[in-house]
Amino acid sequence: MPAEPSQAGEEPIVGALLAWYDEHERPLPWRSSSPWGVLVSEFMLQQTPVDRVLPLWHTWMDRWPDAAALAGAPLADILRAWGRLGYPRRAKRLHEAARAIVRDHGGAVPSDRADLLALPGVGDYTAAAVMAFAYGRRSVVLDTNVRRVLARTLDGRSAALPHITTGERTRANELWPHADDRSARWSAAVMEFGALTCTARAPRCDECPLVQHCAWTALGQPIGDRPARRQPDYVGSDRQARGHVLDLLRERTGSLPRSAIEQTWPDVEQVGRALDSLIADGLVAPRGRGRLGLPR
Fold first, then answer.
1. What's the predicted TM-score (pTM) here?
2. Each residue of 268-279: pLDDT tens digit?
3. What's the pLDDT tens digit per position in 43-52?
4. CB atoms within 10 A of CB 208
5. How many domains in the chain?
6. In this structure, are 120 and 41 located in the same domain?
7. Helix, strand or coil for residue 245?
8. Is 277 part of a structural domain of the chain?
């Protein structure tokens, strides 16, 4: 398919990548969903791959198809449904966001950036993503994939800097198309391109529609001098201990003595830390007489 022509004043990479997206867009269900479905997907996709999110998203939307349905559900049910998707605080924050949407917006996910940022668990990226993908509005969506594509194409670096800079935001804002519909589709296209082709490891440069515009390729694809960040080991970590505790409590409708929970983990001090942190996060609740359970 010929590259989509760039509009006046627009970088050529925009038209080229939009044409690529016309052929390679994945049929992800939240892309044709409601604003609520988009918001749910964004909470679930934080630090979690699409293939793990897909089955849970379908189950979740069947059970809680709008903010009002989730807002009225007990937190314990929500944590059980979240299961092993990881980072369960996201589930709690989504529950809090649903309640705020019902309380402050009549049950409709807001489209205004300030209103979105006021929701629990919603930061710059999530607000921008909801504006673009739920409402087709112009917003600069900068996730890990997008930032990597821009770093390679425009700056000749193999990876983005650890944190978003003011200059990076300014340059991205200048690159993004001005029309709402074109901008929203470009946001989806560049994110999809980073997930499927311009990947962190083993990028598929032989299939890249931007290769003639890519500064990283022109420089010989230097690796860079910033060492890759090593993902902390999960096995034996406090995070694993937290997950173990939640798994135990999800399997019960009632509560367990704290002493019984501690006996199920080899390191009593570590599981104690896990319990204390879960209580502080509001994911586990004291039930009296030394017993603990999921919050009601």
1. 0.90
2. 999 999 999 999
3. 999 989 999 9
4. 20
5. 3
6. yes
7. helix
8. yes
Evaluate whether residue 119 is within a structural domain.
Answer: yes
Q: How far is Cα 32 from Cα 25, in angstroms, rounded to an integer?
A: 12
120 shares its domain with 173: no
Q: How far apart are the first and last CA of the chain?
A: 55
Q: Which are the contacts of 166, defined by CB distance < 8 A and separation ≥ 6?
A: none
- Find tokens 């999921």 and name the residue: 294
213/175 same-domain check: yes
Q: How many residues does the chain have?
A: 296
Among candidates 157, 185, 154, 158, which has minimal Cα distance to 170? 154
- Cα 237 from Cα 54, distance rounded (Å): 27
Query: What band does 5 get if pLDDT is binned at 50, 70 and 90?
Result: low
CA 7 → CA 22, 25, 125, distances in Å? 17, 21, 26
CB 132 within 8 A of CB 116: no
- As given in the structure block, the two tokens for residue 27 are 């049929």
pLDDT tens-digit series, residues 145-170: 999 999 999 999 999 999 999 999 99
* Domain final position from 104, 133, 162: 133
Cα angle 177, 179, 183; round to 5: 50
Active-site amino acid positions: 42
The mean per-residue pLDDT over the stretch 253-261 comes to 92
